[in-house]
Amino acid sequence: MIHAIVPAGGAGTRLWPLSRRDHPKFLTDLTGCGRTLIQQTYDRLAPVSESVTVVTGLAHRDAVASQLPELAEGDIIAEPSPRDSMAAIALAAAVIARRAGDVVVGSFAADHLIADVAAFHAALAQAERAAEAGYLVTIGITPDHPATGFGYIQEGQPLALAGGCTRGARHVLRFVEKPDAETAAEYLMGGYRWNAGMFVAKTSVLLGALERFEPELAGGIAAIAQAYDTADGPAVLAERWPELKKIAIDHAIAEPLAAAGGVAVVPVEMGWSDVGDYASLRDAVGTGAHVAPGGAAQPVFAIDSPGALVYTHSKPIAVLGLEDVVVVESEGAILVTNIERSQEVKAIVERISRSGMEEIR
Q1: DSSP string, 43-83
Q2: Before 47, cis peptide (omega within 30)?
Q3: Interval 62-75: pLDDT, tens
Q4: How far, CA to CA in Å, does 257 sit from each of 206, 210, 214?
Q5: Is the CB of residue 352 less than 8 Å from the CB of residue 361?
Q6: How do residues 259-307 score in pLDDT, each as one tens digit?
Q7: How far apart are CA 196 and CA 111, in angstroms?
Q8: Inter-residue contact 28 to 36 (CB < 8 Å)
Q9: 221 contacts 95 by C-beta, under 8 angstroms
Q10: 315 in Cβ contact with 298 (< 8 Å)
């Protein structure tokens, strides 16, 4: 049983217009299962967690509280502005440490999908055991294709834990950035794992690494955490938060700690997806007709259009002779693109922002 941390941020611009600035993808039911992505994240974490703490922006705090009524008020930390993943995770870990002591925490994004929850729970149990031994542990996804949109993890020798039982964990040699297609193919053949950004560690290990590698950031987090549950908490948060360094947890502690031999990986196959664009969304939900959030099912007529992904909202949609097309009708906006260009949808959002049409962004 861990104390789960769920960073819930990001605009999800590659999934516009299903994901909007005021209603990002983690608050949205993209798969049509009746639960939003953050609700699905909570559902798979709750059975194996002592507590669940969500870190989100002020603009989304009320929506998170509405979607997750199981959480107490103190279980939702609202950051005044985005400072990237390290500050969010560290603040949650520091607050949990003050409330519960030196416990094992795990950070898991609010907007990912996992098909095999049992495999995830098994990997989490292995990660917890390695974390208790003093490692920062990441859960490495076994890749099924040479993806260029993910970072990779190079693993080393099995981890020797008490009693000589490794339980599947291995040393991490290094983290590598998103590769080109040729390098990704080499990584696939070389047994590298996808970096899904899941980290498990004792609070003392995580915060100790932060103090070691980013002492100024660590000091700011400590000051905020010390005051967080007091009457001065909101004022200290507002004052100190804008001063914090904007940096991802990978760069802040995972990469340098791996170089020092302090990071382990638990490999797993669990049907993981970051649902980062329409290509990965199609992999998750399949082709054919789906319903956009807030919309209704409508007739879809797709002729000679293999691989088409269509989201309806209020009108019938007809597609003729377009392979791998993406058509999304949503409230106030329509997107037409193809799977090959799905990574570029964020450029549309940037163009919309420059045009001043914030109401559809």
Answers
A1: HHHGGGEEEEEEEEEGGGHHHHHHH-TTS-GGGEEEESS--
A2: no
A3: 999 999 999 999 99
A4: 10, 10, 12
A5: yes
A6: 999 999 999 999 999 999 999 999 999 999 999 999 999 999 999 999 9
A7: 11
A8: yes
A9: no
A10: yes
